[in-house]
Amino acid sequence: MRLVDIGVNLMSRQFEGDRDEVLQRARQAGVERMVLTGTDLRSSEAAAEAARRAGQGVELWSTAGVHPHHASDFDDATAARLRELHREGRVVAVGECGLDYNRNFSPREAQLAAFEAQLGLAAEAGLPVFLHQRDAHDEFLAVLRNAWPSLARGAVVHCFTEGPEAAADYLELGCHLGITGWVCDERRGGDLRRAVAEIPADRLLLETDAPYLLPRNLDPRPASRRNEPRHLPAVLAAVAALRGETPGAVAAAAWEATHAVFGLEPA
Asked: Among 40-49, 51-60, 196-205, whose mean pLDDT is lowest?
């Protein structure tokens, strides 16, 4: 069974001491490919460099963009450097970008400006957009819908955590949905667990969002709260159970869907 993790924050400081070992453990767990997430200019550059080097038996690609938390830092110079990164062969999406009205680490006006600018970069580069949305569904959807005709490669709603109604909105538009360990959380994941069975197989992607969102269905529970790509099979198991499908069938469909939306080269 071959797995691809579409959302790994490998450049996080939480992995500074053991990135190679993290990749080794992932490969041993069946994770053959990863898309590394860029959340600001520094991490986007570092993720692109890591994807160029690869190693440990795991093939790597990356995204390049500015997360809404860092939207206040987005300027013309940032956009220019992102354009350069988007021309690299191992950079396969624009983002992580979007709106986060839960924490508002950047003012909402700055978030909107950075989001709209990066949708323009995605259209310009001919790349899919890798999206973040929290507590901003209506405005986020309106902005995305307005930009959609120019997005030839579509969008991935990364770390989708909402319910069937929101899923239907994104699916109607044409988005792919990334499912994380949130689906394993019986306390917070009820809405998502109801939505998972309704997502078409060719739109459902798997991710860990490591080092965040450690799955709660791990047995035994690890001593550390840090999530790793090696835990992707726990997300797969939960998704398969909720869909009434075998893990192998879900993994195979997610593999194909991931390669299609990101345009990854065949294994």
From this structure: 51-60
9-33 residue pLDDT tens? 999 999 999 999 999 999 999 999 9
Q: Which CATH number fits the domain that encloses residue 154?
A: 3.20.20.140
Q: What is the pTM assigned to this prediction?
A: 0.97
Residue closest to 201 by CA, chosen among 238, 245, 232, 163? 245
3-state secondary structure of 148: helix
Structural domain of residue 98, as residue ranges? 3-262
Residues 220-229: contacts with CB within 8 Å, 24+ apart? 226/14, 227/181, 228/22, 228/25, 228/26, 229/5, 229/8, 229/22, 229/23, 229/25, 229/26, 229/29, 229/31, 229/34
Query: Is the distance from CB of 254 to CB of 4 less than 8 angstroms?
Result: yes
User: Is 70 exceeded by the pLDDT of residue 267?
Assistant: no
* Separation CA 256–CA 240 (nearest Å): 16
| Residue 250 included in any domain | yes
